[in-house]
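Lecture notes, continued. The same structure-token format from the folding unit now serves as the input rather than the output. Read the line below as a description of shape only.
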């Protein structure tokens, strides 16, 4: 078992640096795979803990929920299950439970082989239908800092169609997030991110990339 720490923007930090922060993540690895991510947030008025728990087939989801939620400790959890792997990416079903152990929402997330988020989609709790606000991240693969390495955030409506394209670190100098038509008309945008070369981002579907290169 191995433990590492990250700050709130996803950069690895030392256990000594943790002591200086009010917000950080403690990541526990088991057999070289992430088992839990404990997100700690503290302030003058309250402390909050959110546990992301990666469930395996031998574990009982309800037991894990009961172990990782608490009103007294202000602790809630996200359960990751039904792992599906393809082309070096992992897709998980996720259920978030509040401190009382009550289901708040359902989602899916896909991660690359560096455990960087590439897709997040929220689903209706009752119908499991995709809701608006899903998004995908595109990374430059130039920096060690996960946040700094993000080039674009593409958001989608409830049908899975592109809504707007967000320039995360101001590479394009947009004054507002452009629509797809506006982005396609931008010559600079097409140089940095040739749209036709990245079909994974053309729709919220498929959630799991069908190629190792996205």
């Amino acid at each position: 078992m191995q433990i590492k720490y990250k700050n709130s923007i996803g950069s690895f930090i030392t256990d000594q640096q943790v002591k200086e922060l009010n917000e950080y993540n403690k990541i526990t690895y088991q057999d070289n795979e992430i088992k839990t991510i404990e997100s700690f947030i503290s302030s003058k008025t309250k402390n909050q803990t959110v546990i992301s728990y990666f469930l395996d087939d031998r574990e009982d989801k309800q037991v894990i929920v009961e172990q990782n939620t608490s009103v007294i400790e202000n602790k809630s959890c996200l359960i990751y299950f039904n792992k599906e792997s393809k082309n070096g990416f992992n897709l998980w079903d996720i259920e978030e439970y509040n401190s009382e152990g009550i289901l708040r929402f359902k989602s899916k997330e896909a991660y690359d082989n560096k455990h960087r988020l590439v897709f997040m989609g929220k689903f209706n709790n009752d119908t499991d239908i995709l809701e608006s606000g899903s998004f995908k991240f595109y990374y430059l693969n130039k920096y060690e800092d996960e946040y700094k390495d993000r080039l674009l955030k593409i958001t989608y409506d409830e049908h899975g169609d592109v809504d707007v394209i967000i320039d995360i670190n101001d590479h394009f100098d947009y004054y507002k997030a452009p629509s797809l038509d506006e982005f396609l008309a931008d010559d600079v945008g097409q140089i940095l991110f040739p749209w036709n070369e990245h079909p994974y981002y053309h729709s919220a579907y498929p959630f799991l990339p069908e190629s190792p290169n996205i």
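Point for the exam: The chain has a mean pLDDT of 93.
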